[in-house]
Amino acid sequence: IVHLAAIASPGEAPDHIIFQTNTISTYNVFEAARRLAIRNVVWASSETVYGIPYAKGPAYVPVDEAIEAPAWSYSLSKYIGEKLAEQIATWDPRMKFVGLRFSNVQEPQDYEHFAEYDKHPEARRFNLWTYIDARDAAQAVRKAVEVNLKGSHIFGIANANGVTGKDNNALLEKYYPKVERKRAIKPNETLISIQKAKDVLGYRPRYDWKPQAAALHGSS
Questions:
Q1: Most distant CA pair in the chain: distance in Å?
Q2: Which of 62, 78, 124, 142 is 20–30 Å from 179 (CA)?
């Protein structure tokens, strides 16, 4: 089972409806899988579990799967989904749950807007300037379905770079100067760690927004 259904963002419904819909639907899918002995379940968690919109800044950068800091109804619903998977996996040791904490999903036509993020990076500070190409999200789902695991597992899923051409270190100094850096930060790497997904799933982002944005504008 691949479970991607949810109310996807704030404003689409009142907070209590978002929480109720997302948590109950996820429970129903997980419990149906268990009862039907469907032991391979991949589902969409969310980057928001890292603490988005980072009112006090992220816990550290790059953010990784160890962070559990839901801050509103939507992210709380995704966090509860992770905990549901953990518990239900203990009821049947043959089950596999893989939760994918997707970054902000972008399709090719969305890349025409990325030039604006260079001009106004504050517009994307809410999620540390990260994104996931929909085609790479699909790759992550496929690899999660195919991987030989048991139990419950969470992976951060983003593209390899950020949505601007600006240096991460300059962005962090300006917008999150007090945030701990777990290691040296490369100029344009994703600030959501995808190392675990690379190591365990064999995930490798393939679709970079830069050449595609250029193609949309007729550049060579």
A1: 55
A2: 78
